[in-house]
Amino acid sequence: RMACSRFEYVKSFEQDDSILPNVWIVIRVDGKKFHKFSKTHDFEKPNDENALNVMNAAATAVMQEFRDIVLAYGQSDEYSFVFRKETTAFKRRSAKLLTYVTSLFSSSYVMQWPRWKSVPLAYAPCFDGRVVLYPSDENLRDYLSWRQADVHVNNLYNTAFWKLVLGKGLSNQQAEERLRGTFSADKNELLFQEFGINYNTLPAMYRKGTILLRKRVVDRKGRQAIVPLHEDLISSQFWKNHTEILGKYV
Amino acid sequence: RMACSRFEYVKSFEQDDSILPNVWIVIRVDGKKFHKFSKTHDFEKPNDENALNVMNAAATAVMQEFRDIVLAYGQSDEYSFVFRKETTAFKRRSAKLLTYVTSLFSSSYVMQWPRWKSVPLAYAPCFDGRVVLYPSDENLRDYLSWRQADVHVNNLYNTAFWKLVLGKGLSNQQAEERLRGTFSADKNELLFQEFGINYNTLPAMYRKGTILLRKRVVDRKGRQAIVPLHEDLISSQFWKNHTEILGKYV
Amino acid sequence: RMACSRFEYVKSFEQDDSILPNVWIVIRVDGKKFHKFSKTHDFEKPNDENALNVMNAAATAVMQEFRDIVLAYGQSDEYSFVFRKETTAFKRRSAKLLTYVTSLFSSSYVMQWPRWKSVPLAYAPCFDGRVVLYPSDENLRDYLSWRQADVHVNNLYNTAFWKLVLGKGLSNQQAEERLRGTFSADKNELLFQEFGINYNTLPAMYRKGTILLRKRVVDRKGRQAIVPLHEDLISSQFWKNHTEILGKYV
Amino acid sequence: RMACSRFEYVKSFEQDDSILPNVWIVIRVDGKKFHKFSKTHDFEKPNDENALNVMNAAATAVMQEFRDIVLAYGQSDEYSFVFRKETTAFKRRSAKLLTYVTSLFSSSYVMQWPRWKSVPLAYAPCFDGRVVLYPSDENLRDYLSWRQADVHVNNLYNTAFWKLVLGKGLSNQQAEERLRGTFSADKNELLFQEFGINYNTLPAMYRKGTILLRKRVVDRKGRQAIVPLHEDLISSQFWKNHTEILGKYV
Questions:
Q1: Mean of the per-residue pLDDT values for chain A?
Q2: Mind listing the pLDDT tens digit for each residue in D169-204?
Q3: I need a surface site. Which of A179, C209, C243, D204 has the fewest CB within 10 A?
Q4: Which CATH superfamily is domain D12-149+203-241 in?
């Protein structure tokens, strides 16, 4: 039933893209023009809890489908998926892994949307995806720390910025000027002094992002479930608490 | 506001994947496990017009977003998008082009679904995507001819198969045995003799797939629209009728 | 007799590097630190005929070994080898093609040296090599034109420079200053007015570089020989005179 | 002085080939058709000490030039060069590293030849080269063990084979049949019983290949020299004795 035609030679133009064995495979998806997307859909500022829930639900769907993802980490409009070093899923073909993850994340995002958001989707959201390889456990930890350091810096800024705009009535430009050149300590102080806010008591999901891990569930069948955490993964304590991530596949 | 941390070095592990200049870039998306998907959602056999309409609508959304796609071709659960040779979209970065197309196709598929199908989506559909490069116009034409020859062979078989099953009450296995080793002429004859069907009069969309082209619309603004065609693109007549495809970008 | 050991898995870390079909494959080798090399071996300035002869002889050896090279072009301390689009030599594996050419060129250079130069080699010469792909005939022609335009610009400059230094006793710096900002016409004029030299009558090998082509030899067996030419390949006349290059393999 | 011409765009067809950071880079060169080459130059069988010396001398030249090679390993007509994980030589560009090593090895082989062999080179030798990446120290050790296990199996066979041919007057075919299906123990026994040879007392260079390491030389300046060893590198003792290899660059 295969179409054997004189055109079939064109198949030979497909090129092999197998990934080097024994490296961590990270696939990160990232919202395309989500600044506009969040405006169109009227996201709460600085954080829209339900928009983050849509991201987390879409990522959970991806992790349920691809068993060799040992950890996923999301913040803002991005999500990183970590395939274990030894995975042979799709023969480690780069484009296969990349597009399956990106596609399922995208379609799941649309599927999950109405469960969390009341406003209907105005248009189809779009995500880019990339594959990055990390040879050592240290490299992988540093990658995840990089993303978590990023959410810290951005969220502290955004929290202060929107407080100034929404709470004090500053214009966007005025708020920007007020924060220019300030350090983390300054912004913490500003939040505390002017708004009575202790930054460290704000919801951990906003400050730390979301880590998805597989954990055995205490039910009769002892199955695995995908569990969201909002912990600090930069410190080594996290890796001691969850030794299965860097260990062999459980 | 950029997170400059000691972890930032991990960014240097991202590798350049720019595509060679002056080649046709074809991105093909392909439904993952759509045999099961079509069963779950009770697709009509051998062709579900509305399921194909969802595919076409999703592909149209992709083509509207990425202006450098000069032609798209779809059949069954796959769609190919042809970027013009000279495109500099996303600096020709392979993963960017690949994932934007695959992501937008996937999310658009879910968005378009309820417009064409009454049964709700049981789960999120998933598509893989691949990039294939064709240096010459002849290679590109042969690629598209390959896909169209494929739909011909498959659809003729499927039409005969489902007539035997649905019309004559044969089991799947019996129908398979009946068709084993037959040539196109045999199947045409079978359809005509036993079911009074002239295969060539069946809907062209089933027999030829769908070609999406940009065409000037005759309205006041003379804008471009994306037009679906169900023509034979294997013959050279098609390319004479639509010279803009292989010509320079209009 | 094959060594089947538990270590053999490491072979799977080798990655496929097959070159896209239907593109021109250009391999260019380039002398490493040949400025120093030419000083050490006391090359004549601005051109050392015998040093160029060593290059040409080494390139001829490469072309004799790899039958799918249809043209080679050399100037200064570099040589480009053009494999025909359809070549399947070494399964089009990039590293194989690249290293065979670079290796044989390097060893042949040392072998050929004493036939042309009387001073012995002070140390082993080293060349880097790169693979560049050109999809269209026009791209290929433009590549070769680029290299030939390069030799023109450089050789005109060098000819004027060394005349000023060796003929007029200027220091290197003085000669550099004298030529700064001059156009081709200026340098032609300078050579003519001050040294009575008509640049266009200087040896074509210096001005145009060397093109190696396969040509039928008029002997009893009608065999092919590799023939050096020093023609202008930027003009289309060259390609009309040697239609076999862009045509199918003869 | 740069040739800025309308052809210069062709330079943009060169593609980036930087190697992933933090992986061991192994470059292996391998003689092309060295079976014929060894016949032409009348190599002693089963091992030609001076031919191996030429290989070792060429490899030493490569290691002297590229300071980031921490270890080289050679046997028969092949040599592997290990660049330290952290090397930034030539911006880790794959083709640069690959061709510099292969080129210098090839030209040095020709340069070194007359110092060890009295028969002149009949033609230019040619080597292919490949780049293989190993993420972990274990992978690297296994790669080197693989090559050393290879020389063991091949050399034991060849030693027995040539004893039968040269010592007992068997034809090549008879010797092959005599050895077919035998295990290492059988061949050891055959050598001992029929020829009074204790295989383990044969020169270590033949049995173990040659390892080149950098070692501090005990002279006034405490410089580094490249030292040949013929040790067993499969056992962990080797790596304990030479901790600098897997450690940071000294």
A1: 95
A2: 999 999 999 999 999 999 999 999 999 999 999 999
A3: C243
A4: tRNA(His) guanylyltransferase (Thg1) (3.30.70.3000)
Mean pLDDT of the region C97-121: 98
| Whole-number Å distance between alpha carbons of D202 and D188 | 12
Chain D interface includes C14 (CB < 8 A): yes
Give the confidence band of D57 by pLDDT, cuts at 50, 70, 90: very high
- The reply to whether B103 touches chain C by the CB within 8 Å rule is no
Query: What pLDDT shows up at residue D1?
Result: 45
Q: What average pLDDT does this structure show over A14-28?
A: 98
Q: What are phi and psi of A190, to 5 degrees?
A: -55, -45
If contacts are CB pairs under 8 Å, which of residues 214-243 in chain B contact chain A?
none
Neighboring chain D residues of C121 at a CB cutoff of 8 Å = 111
Q: Residues A73-108: pLDDT tens digits?
A: 999 999 999 999 999 999 999 999 999 999 999 999
| A22 near D CB under 8 A | yes
User: Rounded to 5 degrees, what are φ and ψ at B132?
Assistant: -130, 140
B229 contacts B210 by C-beta, under 8 angstroms: yes
Residue C37 confidence (pLDDT) above 90:
yes
Nearest to B242 by CA among B200, B214, B208, B210: B214
With a pLDDT cut of 70, the percent of chain A lying above it is 97
The whole-chain average pLDDT of chain B stands at: 95
Distance of residue B8 Cα from the nearest chain C Cα, in angstroms: 28
Interhelix angle C137-162/C184-195, nearest 10 degrees: 40
Helices (H), chain A: 34-40, 49-65, 94-116, 137-162, 172-179, 184-195, 204-208, 236-241
Complex prediction ipTM: 0.95
> What per-residue confidence (pLDDT) applies to B4?
65
Distance CA C33, CA C12 (A): 36
- Crossing angle of the two packed helices B137-162 and B184-195, in degrees rounded to 10: 40
Residue C7 touches partner A, C-beta closer than 8 Å:
no
Beta bridge partners of A72: A81, A212
Contacts of D99 in chain C (CB under 8 A): 29, 98-99, 102, 127-130
Contact D11 C146 (CB under 8 A): yes
Which tens digits make up the pLDDT trace of C155-170?
999 999 999 999 999 9
Chain A CB contacts of C15 below 8 Å: 16, 18, 20
Query: Looking at chain A, which residue has its C-alpha nearest residue D133?
Result: A20
Record: contact B18-D21, CB cut-off 8 A: no
**Helix (H) or strand (E) segment spanning residue D127:** strand D127-134
CB < 8 Å to D132, chain A: none
| Binary contact (D20, A22; C-beta < 8 A) | no
Model confidence at B249: pLDDT above 70:
no
> Which CATH fold would you assign to the domain A17-151+204-241?
Alpha-Beta Plaits (3.30.70)
Residue D245 Cα distances to A45, A55, D25, D75, angstroms: 54, 46, 13, 20
Picking from C153, C211, C147, the residue whose alpha carbon sits closest to that of residue D11 is C147
Architecture of domain C15-144+204-241: 2-Layer Sandwich (3.30)
B139 interfacial to chain C (CB closer than 8 Å): yes
Q: How many CB atoms lie within 10 A of CB C195?
A: 14
**Token pair of C103 as six digits:** 């290796």
The C-alpha of C135 sits at a distance from chain B's nearest C-alpha, in angstroms, of 5
Kindly determine whether residue D32 and residue C1, on different chains, have CB atoms separated by under 8 Å.
no
Q: Is A16 on the interface with C (CB under 8 A)?
A: yes
Cα A84 to Cα A68: distance, rounded to the nearest angstrom: 6
Q: Tokens representing C140?
A: 């290929």
- C-beta separation of A110 from B111 below 8 A: yes
* Highest CATH level, class, for B16-146+203-241: alpha beta
